[in-house]
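Q: Can I see a sequence and its folded structure?
A: Here is a first one.
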Amino acid sequence: MRGVSPVSFLPNSTPENYVQNEVKLLESETLAKRVAHKLGDSAEDQLRGVAKVLAYLRNHVSFLQSPRMTPEQRRVKNVQKALSVRTSLQSQVIELFYDAPDPHLATRGANSAVSELISLNREAGWQLAQDTTDWLNQQVADLKATLENSNRDLQDFARSSGLVFAGKQGTLAEDRMRQVQDALAKAEAERAAKQSRYEAALASSGNVMSDAVATGPLRQYETDLQSLRRELAQLQTLYTPTNYRVEKVKAQIAETEKSIENEHKEIVSRLSTEYKAAAGLERLLSAAHARQLKTVEQQMGEERRYDVKKGEIDATQRLYESMLQKVKEAGAASALRTTNVRLIDSASVPSVPYSPNAPLNMAIGFAMGALGGIGFVLVQEGSSKVRRPGESNLPDVPELGVIPSARDAWALEDPGRKLLGLKRPFGELAVVTRNRDTSLLAESFRATLTSILFGAAFNRGPGAKEPGGRVLAVTSIDVLEGKTTILTNLGIAAAETKQRVLLIDADLRRPRVHSLVNLPNRWGLADMLQRRDQPPIIEEKPLEALTQRTGIPNLWVLPAGSIDAAMVSSLLYSSDLPILLQRFRREFDLILIDTPPMMLYADARVLGRMSDGVVLVVRANTKSREELKAAHLKLVQDQIPVLGTILNDWKMDPSQTRAYGRYYNHYRPQSA
């Protein structure tokens, strides 16, 4: 019926669309009603054991029943739940499944669904063929009457308009016009060719004429003239001008030139006559063409109207013939009660239930549990954060120290403040090494400084063999790692050992060292490197002009200074910076440089090349070992010695807190 009925198939239907339509039909309520009617009440009667009890509870227990459902609706709903289909993208085969607690009921349900689907398709096809046949018969009768009336009107119009057609090429007037037009085109071409030869002959100088218009005698005369002129030239070299031989050749030359001139005139006259004749013929044909064109234009409007009418009749004729063919096909289709749904395999009574499959479920559960456990371990291993001491160690890079969480450390000293939820001010943490000489935090900073000063890497760095102080850069992977606080406390701890210590604030984007030691930031490193004024020689400046003394003995600070945002990225490449560091090496025992986070900016790597080593600060529970390894790899690629790492803000477990508390209380100085 694809070619018979205009509504039998969708315009863009494909085999995949058709299979999906059949699937929807299998899932429809109409088919479910027919299957439920075919199965009848015997479906519930065949249930046994637990299945029968569950069905009874669903039908009679109030909270298990569907609201306002008749027995018929319940049977239809059960069929729709039990029936499921599966298709394949590679074929047009549909697999049908019927789920029931009883194997015989499942078999009957599946086979009934297929038989009802075939019946629905057959009935729909037969009804469609009947409706299409009736509609086509009515359309054919209407088209036949329309076609007969249109043919009569077309013949009457042709006679009244005086149109006479010459085959398929058009009217007689159009045929005549095409002939005249072809003749006119040939005449124009011939006239143009003769005109061009005539004008070329007129333009030729006396004895010179183009090959296009020169004739045979003229060519011969020109050849003879050339020969005589060569002969004359030879004789003039041998004889005097009055010699009879010379005079004879001159006479022959004059006679030949006169012949050429006469021949030239005859050619021009002949070409002129031919040109005039061609022009006259062109004028006659042009006039005939104009007259014929006028006649054709007068008939053109009538001919267009005729063509429109003829086209409408032809379209109606084709539609009529198509309808006749479809009537025949529809009649044949209505006589055949066929369907394109075919049963491949009917359902058979299963010997064992398909669900639940206990061995398979156990195997799947075991496999998924094992894979899940392995995956969890791998994920934890790959993405775990650095949380406790020892985890910040890297190959050939030791952990220099561990700074405990300030809240945990202060809770050990004053448990009452922890219970009340009170916090210490941040400024006190930044200089805790000075303010609390015997606190757990202060001792952790002193232990870290000892690891740095006695470390093998620090004592074999680039500046180990150079006289003067050592330069140490302190950086972190990201912001808020606590590097500035650690740098300040390390500087205070080193100053307590009677060493001259300088803190350089090279974090030009976020300078904070000056605020931690209560110093102004009106002038500093950026001002010296920018050279805003006439630069004095760094070597000749007094130390007080380069640094600021803090209130802590043996501790000086070089603040960041006033910073031009546009020049931040280029300041550290100044040629004055190495000279400045050399001056500081002579003045101080230890120079600590605060740098920006190295994964955000390149400043730490630039300063690291000028220092004796770099220390990485890592805040606990914020960075993974992979991130720590990536930062270390960047420094190694830059050939910068990495002295080690410092784990900051370590949050102790309750057991560790108790152990450190006992230790601290045992060794804490007792008041007199």
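Q: Show me another, different protein.
A: A second, unrelated one:
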Amino acid sequence: MRNHRERTIAIVLLCALLLTLPLAWGKLWSVQVPLFGELAGFDFSVFALLGFAVVAAGIPELVRLMRQDRGIQIFVVFAGIGVLLAALQQVKFGWNSTLFLSSLFYFSVPVAGILLAREIRRILPLFLLILFAGSLGISLREWTSGLPAVGLSGNWNWNWTLLAVSAPSLVFFFPVRFRLAGGILSAFGVAAGQFLISPGYASRGTLISCIGATAILFATSRLHLANNHRKKILTGLAVAAAIAGLAFYYGVRDGFLPSRAPQENRLMLWQGAAALGEAHWGLGVEPGRFEGEIAPYLPVSYFDSDFATDRHPHPHNEFLYLWCGFGLFGIVWWVMTAAAGLRGAIRRRRNDELILLAAWCWLVLLIHGQIDVVLSTPLAGGLFALLTGTLAAAGVPRIRPVAGYRGVRIAAFAGFGGAAVILLGLNLCSGWNCREGKLALLNGNPEPARRFLERSVAILPTVENLYTLGTVNLFDFHDPSAALTNFKRITSDFRLPSYSHSAGRIARSLAATGKLKESLPYFEQEQRNFPRSAVNLRLWETVLRALGETKQADRHLFEWRKLLGRKGINEFIFPYLMRDQRLDDSPIELKHFLENDRR
């Protein structure tokens, strides 16, 4: 009976991973599903509640596992510390249930993976086969239509990685003696073949991750056999990795590496994230608040790189993300996560194909997560968290089910599971209305757009629907008072100092309502966030001049003209930047615009 319950729960969790962006499946029938990423299904907050349902219902078994295995005991204790830290962050920054649950995801889901490890291992090949078939089917439709293949993930980089981790599921149709070779060939067929199939949209991160995962799996198989010297070898490797990591960290933090590759803006993002982490080394800033905190810490050189943008939800490195999100404990938790997964890979018994497949997926995602945003997506991040728990339980003898506790288990599933279902419904309803509002905007219909966005905010406010509604109120309906209410909720409800250009738009809204003096701190904040913003500098100068601050306005006007020269444009081109602020944010977008304008 317990096996049946565990299997059902594992199936539910793995199916939920496939429904993180439910509209993506519609691309099997219609190639283009506009803004499919706006409709979030199972996100981190829903997964956190599902994880707690599993953990709360399985406490008796978890206690036995902790008594039986020292590694699991340490892992679960540190997960508990992480939950307490997330609660302390709510006290420090102010309560927001969405951000709180998103933080808890990092601790509840891996522990749930420990409890469901046996069933997840068994179901994993079928899950990966469905993932591969769905991703490949959608990708083929997109390729044949001349589009970059983003599959179920929403990004072509992540799509290639999901194809690479799921392709080895095909080998379970092969005879046993051919499976290892078949798995290697299928994975590297994807990782290398992408450069032939879609050279303009090939992922170097996928190839690097596959090579790294293969090397580590080979090393763990050797370590499994080296019982007498395993501790010495692991200690030496850990020390070497720590030294290399510190050298790289300080090379990035001090600007040495970013200055050597001025167009590799990942390095500059890492430099800013390192500065943010050090500034908040105690409790961190909370993972969900990273985007609102990072902008002032980015080096100015980042904004001169081709791919500078207005949003920075993740530093393209999971280690730095946890460092900024949870402070020093984030580093500890990243090490704990890596150690738990590697321990499982080393403990793998010879010819244990299910653990080998789990370790392969986990390692590819771990490595790619250090150079991209892939682990911040619910599909890849949720799979990684479950596999962390699955590998942590590898080699641990199976425990017998604990009799009784029926009422506790029912209450856990009813409470946490019911809350997850309610939150899922709110996500879907709010996301659907936000998507409809954005589609109406694309079609040039601001009136229905505002109605849909207001409905979305009423159902479940998010930073994105508040920001979009404020933008519509400000620019389409010229209602700065309503816009100001929306933009300020980003700070009051979500405790974010800024989101994209929210500080600048608060400044514009205040100025438009006649509160010129009150707008000045927001113009200043916007310029700190975007030091190459000609649009904000010009508006700031105009407000200063209206207030009679002539000397300061003249200085800003001088800086503005210098900035236009730096961008390679003149005052006649500037109005285009006012109409489309992407041209102000991104040098590559401005470059393409100027090239098209000359034609």
